[in-house]
Write a structure and sequence with these properties.
alpha+beta; Butyryl-CoA Dehydrogenase, subunit A, domain 3; four-stranded mixed β-sheet; 15 helices; 14 strands; 15% strand; binds flavin-adenine dinucleotide
Length: 473
Amino acid sequence: MRTSGEFLRSLEDGRAVYYRGELVPSVVQHPVLGICARHAAKLFGVARECPDPALGSSISRYFLPSRSSEDLSARHRLIYESTLACNGVFNISQAIGSDALSAAAIVARAVDRSNGTAYADRVEAYRQRVASGDLTVAVAQTDVKGHRARRPHEQADPDLYLRVKEVRADGIVVSGAKAHTTQAAVSDEIIVLPTRAMSDRDADYAVAFAVPAATPGLTMVARPVEELEGNDQALLSRLDFESETLTVFHDVFVPSERVFLCREHAFAGPLAVGFATHHRFTAVSYRAATANLYLGTASLVARTNGIEGASHVRDKLLRLVVYKEIMRMSALAAADAPLFQEGFAVPNPLYTNLGKLYSNQNFASVLEALVDLAGGIAATLPSRADFENPDEHGMLQKYLAGAEGADRRVEVLRLAKELGVSTFAGYMLTLMMHAEGSVEASKLALLRDYDLGEAERLAEGILAAATLDRKPE
Ligand SMILES: Cc1cc2nc3c(=O)[nH]c(=O)nc-3n(C[C@H](O)[C@H](O)[C@H](O)COP(=O)(O)OP(=O)(O)OC[C@H]3O[C@@H](n4cnc5c(N)ncnc54)[C@H](O)[C@@H]3O)c2cc1C
């Protein structure tokens, strides 16, 4: 198992990352990206160790394949606890990569049976490699997608979905770009997966593989972290955040042993959906912990405003409790009733997608509850510079006191402002709606395999009984 220092040193590898129009010489030393690198590094301080029978050594639990309900529950707890250890901010560094590996291990077996390939051995060899190296792995699934109503081969530019350009004896050459790749700029490895089902005409786009972040031809453009820069009131964003990149592959060579799907188009859909199920289980697990940020701050802000006993305040706190506990319940239910595929325990897709959809659709009401309890001051709070100016200090102290003194109240309000009324709030709203799949994707997944039989039989039974009842003697 690595230390956080060893991990941070591994990021000094010449990777091509741009930030605000400049090539970043070191993501660790960078004033903004350095924070998300250190956020990632916090994972190495979390208790994750467990034995791996296949390797005969201790590895991070993230990379242990789930074989039972108990394994899935332990995974849920690990994700929940590591999110709390990072101040309520998800730590994706080994979670998403292991979600991808779980889905790839299952689908690879089906491809091998059908096409005589040897992907399952490659996926397992790669799992052992990242597990024994205690590596961090980002996942680039979402393509940039161009015209949303067109399939990959119908796009004006063939690179708008990532594709295989050439197959060589020793590997493949790929081009294209993936959007919103969380923590790719500060991960050791990047796994690429197809984003959707592919037809035979889209076979070139049915591709999955892994590359180190510092691979020739791979360029990352990091999003600006506006919730931090120029915001002297930021509290949480000084400590923890994750960063996404536009991840561009320009004629990148991938050696065969790192290729997990290449043109077997019938399996792109199962791989995309399989990953989504695993990753949404991760989502509801971390979102339950992240909800604590909003619940805790809402409770503190109510107290500092002196309104904690009012009935509408209890009602809003209850709304936040429901949000948090529905996330946790769906994770626990999904772990309790897994599906078994190829000997792996897969989180129950119904309970997973149910929690995910609830989270997609209800986060706006979490923000609303916090903003209501904080009051308009969450938007109009004077700056930190004003509080620090001796000419204004006394005046602000006097007029911004609440049920608690101004110093305490203003600090709590700063956190409420950051979480509820800032660039960070907008980022979180977008994350809660889109990350790990949009609202429509969750709905689709929920209804796709839903068995209406039990409900229909109940209704049919009543219809049949009522008909019999009306028959003349
Ligand atoms: C903070 C954050 C972190 C993320 N991290 C990752 C990551 O680490 N790795 C990764 O791979 N992805 C990541 N994502 C991507 C995430 O999975 C996508 O944002 C999500 O799947 C939606 O895709 P999109 O952003 O391309 O939106 P779009 O697909 O453009 O959606 C916009 C709207 O268009 C609709 N739409 C799209 N296509 C059609 C169509 N054919 N017909 C009708 N309507 C359509 C959608 O339903 C939606 O209403 C992240 C996203 C966010 C916000």
